[in-house]
Amino acid sequence: ERKAALAATTGPGATSDGHKVPLLANVGGPADVPAAVEAGAEGVGLFRTEFLFLDDSTKAPTEEKQVDAYRQVLEAFPEGRVVVRVLDAGADKPLDFLTPADEPNPALGVRGLRSLLDHPEVLRTQLSALAKAAEGLPVYLEVMAPMVADRTDAKAFADACREAGLQAKFGAMVEIPSAALRARSILQEVEFLSLGTNDLAQYTFAADRQVGAVSRLQDPWQPALLDLVALSAESAKAEGKSCGVCGEAASDPLLACVLTGLGVTSLSMGAASIPYVRATLGKYTLAQCERAAAAARAADSAEEARKAAHAVLSGE
Ligand code: PEP
Ligand code: MG
């Protein structure tokens, strides 16, 4: 019965009073596309391009191989949005040809955009492959960089995109607290923000996402994390730009309502979560989501934040 009720929820993501929040899919490559289409994803909010590079850790895949993979994903969402993240190597995803072997703290070392700025030829090839893949397609391509720390990073990425002749919107992921704190400055260089709440939690709480013993601090309901989400979303609004979430936080239906209340403009998640988030979001007005968000931020722990949001939305 629950399954039937969920299957009945189709269409674009929105609150009960019609405030639209596009529900997008996180994909790792062409193999994830059918599930995303079936779930009614309005596009792709995070295409993790690492998968293409993980087959062979000694060198980058050829431009042709990349064009082929990118095109398969782009073709699946005609008229839709596809947000491609450039290679996010290092830390938990080391690549021999990119990642320094001797880092004492790989999560704080040369990873994400930092690796690409150290190896501009790898970034150039990837951007050129994306430009070719999008050629002639009506898709709305957006390209974003992982691990942007400040405006200097954002400018370096935007410059590389322009030099590659990419017809797309350029964005920055907010995964480091400095990026949330200075979001307005970063938005002088790029056109959108996307919050990677997994890494943002890791760096806000100094809690390694791979270490189970500190998982309490990885909880995306932590009020400090919600504060950084709010700051990013408010900064984007002040600049007339968008701010989505593509971390795991977006896949929790109750938290998705809170994120909407904080001002987040799109939610990207694993395809399997989309029907649940769509159904829950559709039950509440934007004002209810805003009240739930305020209650969650007023809490002093993740657990209290969750309870407070639940109490507001269930009318307790
Ligand atoms: C994140 O950090 O929240 C994110 C979306 O990127 P990844 O999980 O691939 O690091
Ligand atoms: Mg990340």
From TrEMBL:
Keyword Metal-binding: yes
Function: General (non sugar-specific) component of the phosphoenolpyruvate-dependent sugar phosphotransferase system (sugar PTS). This major carbohydrate active-transport system catalyzes the phosphorylation of incoming sugar substrates concomitantly with their translocation across the cell membrane. Enzyme I transfers the phosphoryl group from phosphoenolpyruvate (PEP) to the phosphoryl carrier protein (HPr).
Domain PEP-utilising enzyme C-terminal per the UniProt entry, residue ranges: 11-282
CC cofactor: Mg(2+)
Entry similarity comment: Belongs to the PEP-utilizing enzyme family.
UniProt keyword Transmembrane present: no
Binding site for phosphoenolpyruvate: R48, R85, N198, D199, R209
Enzyme class name: transferase
Active site (catalytic residues): C246
Compartments where located: Cytoplasm
Name recorded for this polypeptide: Phosphoenolpyruvate-protein phosphotransferase
GO biological process: phosphoenolpyruvate-dependent sugar phosphotransferase system
Coiled-coil features, chain-numbered ranges: none
Domain of life according to the entry: Bacteria
Annotated GO CC locations: cytoplasm
Key words, A-Z: Cytoplasm, Kinase, Magnesium, Metal-binding, Phosphotransferase system, Pyruvate, Sugar transport, Transferase, Transport
Catalytic activity: L-histidyl-[protein] + phosphoenolpyruvate = N(pros)-phospho-L-histidyl-[protein] + pyruvate
Native species: Streptomyces aurantiacus JA 4570
Enzyme Commission code(s) on record: 2.7.3.9
Molecular function, one GO term: phosphoenolpyruvate-protein phosphotransferase activity
